[in-house]
Amino acid sequence: MEDRDRWVRNEVLLGGLDPPYSTRFEDVVKGLERWGWKPRVMETRRSFARQVWLVAKGASRTLRSKHLTGRAMDLIDSRYAWDSTPLEFIVDLMILAETNGLLTGGLFGLTFDEKVERRIQAKAGQAGELKALLRVRCGWDPCHVEVPGV
After folding, report:
1. CATH value at residue 34
2. What is the DSSP string of 111-144?
3. What are phi and psi of 76, to 5 degrees?
4. Contact between residue 51 and residue 65 where contact means Cβ atoms under 8 Å apart
5. pLDDT per position as a tens digit, 26-55
6. What is the DSSP string of 69-120?
C-alpha cells in the first residue's frame, strides 16, 4: 500500500472513533509515523454482526469488544503482516499507547504482576527493558489499542 493511500485510510478509520478519545488514538498513529514506522489502521469501530463473526472465527475472544463503541483500534506496520509484526513495533506501540492513556492488547492474558511490570516500563519509555519483558511473554493481541476501563 502506498503511503498516500495508507494516510487516507488511516484518516477515514480514525474518524470512526469515539470523539472524546479519538485524538489519543491519532497521537499514537502520528507518533509511530514520527518514529519511522508505517502505521496502518486495520479496524476501529465494528458492527455487532462482525464481532460475532470474529469470535466464531477465533479472531476475537469477546462479544463486548471496545470496537463496538469506537473505543479501540487495531493497527500494524504496513510493511509486515499480522503474524510477522516486529517486536520493536509492539514496544513502540505500547510506549505510545501508555503515554496517551491507552492500553494495548500486548497486556491481554498476562498476570497482574506482568501487566504492572510492562506498563511501568512503557510509561518510563524504557524500550530495551520492555522489549526483554515482551520477549518473555506478550499478550494475545499486541496490535490492539483501546481506552482502558470504559
Report:
1. 3.30.1380.10
2. -HHHHHHHHHHHHHT-HHHHHHHHHH---SEEEE
3. -135, 175
4. yes
5. 999 999 999 999 999 999 999 999 999 999
6. GT-EEEEEETTS-GGG--HHHHHHHHHHHHHTT-EEETTTT--HHHHHHHHH
User: What is the rounded CA–CA span in Å between residue 14 and residue 105?
Assistant: 18
Q: Which domain range does residue 104 map to?
A: 3-146
SS3 28: helix
Residue 59 CA, distance from chain mean position: 15
| DSSP state for residue 149 in the 8-state scheme | T
Predicted confidence at residue 55, as pLDDT, reads 95
In degrees and rounded to multiples of 5, residue 65 shows phi and psi of -65, 145
Radius of gyration of the chain (CA): 15
Cell 466464531, located at residue? 56
Mean pLDDT (the chain) is 94
Domain count, the chain: 1
